[in-house]
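Following the same procedure, backbone shapes were mapped to integers, as reproduced here:
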Amino acid sequence: MSSMTRHTVSILLVIAVALLAGEGARAQSTLPGTSQFNPPPPPPPPPPKIEAPKIPQLGVVPSPNYKPIPRNSYGDRFSKCLDAAAAAGMGPGDRGTYARGCANQ
């Protein structure tokens, strides 16, 4: 082989290696249907804190809850009383009287 042929072969070999190295950049392309301008996804949220429930102790008297039970609105109580009066078979005139007294209790 002449030195000219070796020189040409070595140049072709360098060009082939450069072309093959250029193919590596294509492996980093985006997936189909996505854009290269999309921001990266946010990091996952931290795991929830798991706390053991408070265990009642033997011999300790629990503190009583003195909060009053929440009461329904007047309209809700009145509707419930009207339904109860109708279910009891009262007439339309008696239902209103019964429902007003029942809702005010």
